[in-house]
Amino acid sequence: MGEVLFRLGYLYLETKQAENAVDSFKKYLSLKDKTHVGEVQYQLGFLFAERKQQKKAIKIFENYLAGDNEKHREEIQLRLGYLYAENKQQKKGH
């Protein structure tokens, strides 16, 4: 089941169905299958960021960094910096 949700999420990404991709990836993370957790967190973080859901993106990226995933570590650290700055600016604007 986990592999199916993982592949389905990518299929949705390729066909520009972001909402469905988010749903598939979130379901994948709720399973015990942890084979693709890092990659799913990476994709979800960017999906949330693209949809202006900074807090969700920050949380998922922090979860990625808390794990032992190395593949996208530097890219995520950089993106987190931008998200922290954007989130801070939004709070000042309200």
Structure explained in plain terms:
With 94 residues, the protein is mainly alpha-helical. It has one domain: Serine Threonine Protein Phosphatase 5, Tetratricopeptide repeat, CATH 1.25.40.10. It is 78% helix and 0% strand. It is built from five helices and no strands. Helix 1 runs antiparallel to helix 2. The longest helix has 21 residues, at 73-93. It is globular, with a radius of gyration of 14 Å. The N and C termini lie far apart (43 Å). The mean pLDDT is 91.
List keywords for this structure.
94 residues, Serine Threonine Protein Phosphatase 5, Tetratricopeptide repeat, 78% helix
Poorly predicted spans: none
Strand content: under 5%
* N-end to C-end Cα span: 43 Å
Per CATH, the architecture is Alpha Horseshoe
The 3D shape can be described as globular
CATH topology: Serine Threonine Protein Phosphatase 5, Tetratricopeptide repeat
What is the CATH C-level name?
Mainly Alpha
Average pLDDT works out at 91
CA-atom Rg in angstroms? 14 Å
What string, H for helix and E for strand, traces the elements in order? HHHHH
**CATH homology superfamily name:** Tetratricopeptide repeat domain
Structural class: mainly alpha
Biggest sheet overview: none
Question: What is the helix tally?
Answer: 5
Quantity of strands, as a count: 0
Task: Estimate nothing, just give the exact number of structural domains.
Answer: 1
Helix content: over 70%
